[in-house]
Amino acid sequence: MAKEFDYTVEKPLNREPPVQDLISSFITGDTAYDRNHGRIPHIDAGEHVVCVDGAVKHTLKLSISQLKTDFEQHEIVCALQCAGNRRHTMRTLLKDVDGIDWGDGAVMNCRWSGPRLKDVLAKAKVTIPNIQEGHAAFASFQSECQDDSWFGGSIHLTRALQEDADVILALEMNGKRLPVKHGYPVRVVTPGIAGARAVKWLDRITVQPEESNNFYQQRDYKILPPEATDKEAAEQYWNVTPAIQDMPVNSVIAVPQSGETVELSSRGTTRVEGYALPQGDQGPVVKVEVSVDDGTTWRDAEILDHVEPSGKWCWVLWKADVGLEKGDKRRVLSRATDKGGNTQPAVPQWNLRGVGYNGYGESRDLRIL
Questions:
Q1: Chain center to CA of 76
Q2: Predicted confidence (pLDDT) at residue 260 exceeds the cutoff of 60
Q3: Measured between alpha carbons, how far is 293 from 365 in angstroms, rounded to an integer?
Q4: Which residue in 286, 276, 260, 280 sits closest to 338, CA to CA?
Q5: Phi-psi bin for 354: left (phi > 0), alpha (psi -120 to 50), beta?
Q6: Percent of the chain scoring above 70 in pLDDT
Q7: Which of 50, 54, 94, 235 could disulfide-link to 207, CB 3.0 to 4.6 Å?
Q8: Residue 84 and residue 103: Cα distance in Å, rounded?
Q9: Cα dist. 126→57, 120, 243 in Å?
């Protein structure tokens, strides 16, 4: 029986919600962004098997039922974001880049549940003598991709085996069966790490001494040096530039949006709202600040409390009431600081692929009445 697919290799599903809609809920539901490099496969969970191989004593072939019943189920709340989130800002404020013109909405904050990767690898018994030099590589062979015949990525083995790193093989999202477009029946969830490593429709986990050899690990999703000004100049840097892993500390202003007309309240203030994310495993975000004088002075925003569980992997939502002078071309900035002491920079380094942008959040060209 032929497998069903949605979308095409030429036109995969890539979309993001308006950022003002995205921040309407701490837990992201149906508005979650979609990022794909090929078709979306429909998989029979009853037939699907995840193979665990490579530098392990026992090669495993695990059914979805075994992943549910043979291992303790672990729930985490964490943000996943595309490495290209905020690419549009890098393109428009710094210099043109190569890639989908993502705005500020290529991020989701969800509840994920499934077995820990470390527990699965414990059953397979990793045999690499020095885990500091190992990698856990993930592969999906379900769909041909735009630049490779399959999709894959890898993370450091130390992260995969670290209990408090919370890497899981997700079977559920927000308390329900994993949606097809988000990887059903099983995907990897890699908290704090770029979404490109959170492989959907997972077929294989390989413990190995080197990174994944997939195109999207080797020749994409890297912060190339500024000297890589175009595709030709980038050739000499792909093999010597590390693949992006941890995402940087970041914040975004969702309300008001750049270019909007804003009427001040009777107190002469306007409400500013947004989200903020910690760097890698350095969360949670402990402070968000806003500025209305181009960063000369800053004042603390209020980080909102939520009834849902949170932790170091989550985003935070925030708000601040700020005073702005009436007139045109007004600007508000935001910056975040996480528990590890990482503070968002004014402007990060430009890179050809436009990944990892984390300059100040900004709402500019505001007309204040």
A1: 15
A2: yes
A3: 13
A4: 286
A5: left
A6: 99
A7: 54
A8: 9
A9: 6, 10, 23
Collapse the DSSP code of 302 into the 3-class scheme (helix H, G, I; strand E, B; otherwise coil) and give the result: strand
Angstrom distance (rounded) from CA 39 to CA 29: 22
Q: Give the per-residue pLDDT at 2.
A: 56
Which of 116, 146, 141, 108 has the alpha carbon at shortest distance from 30? 108
Instruction: Supply the pLDDT for residue 4.
Output: 83
121: left (phi over 0), alpha (psi -120 to 50) or beta: alpha
Cis ω before 348 (30° cut-off from 0)? no
**Residues paired with 164 in a beta bridge:** none
In angstroms, the CA 6 to CA 196 distance is 20
| Cα 354 to Cα 352: distance, rounded to the nearest angstrom | 6
Give dist(CA 316, CA 308) in Å, integer.
12
Alpha helix segments (H runs only) across 204-279? 215-218, 231-234
Q: Quick check: 1 pLDDT over 50?
A: no
Two tokens, residue 198:
């959170």
Residue 344 above 60 pLDDT?
Answer: yes
CA-nearest of 49, 58, 166 to 116 is 166
Residue 281 is encoded by which pair of tokens?
């495993």
Model pLDDT, residue 32:
95
Question: How confident is the prediction for the chain on average, in pLDDT?
Answer: 96
Give the C-alpha distances (Å, rounded to integers) separating 222 from 11, 148, 197, 229. Answer: 23, 17, 12, 14
Report d(CA 84, CA 104) in Å as an integer: 9
Query: What does pTM read for this prediction?
Result: 0.95
Handedness of CA 165, 171, 173, 179 (dihedral sign): positive
Whole-angstrom distance, CA of residue 211 vs CA of residue 157: 10
Other Cβ atoms within 10 Å of 262 Cβ, number:
20
Amino acid at 318: W
Burial class of 69 by CB neighbour count within 10 A (0 to 12, 13 to 18, 19+):
exposed
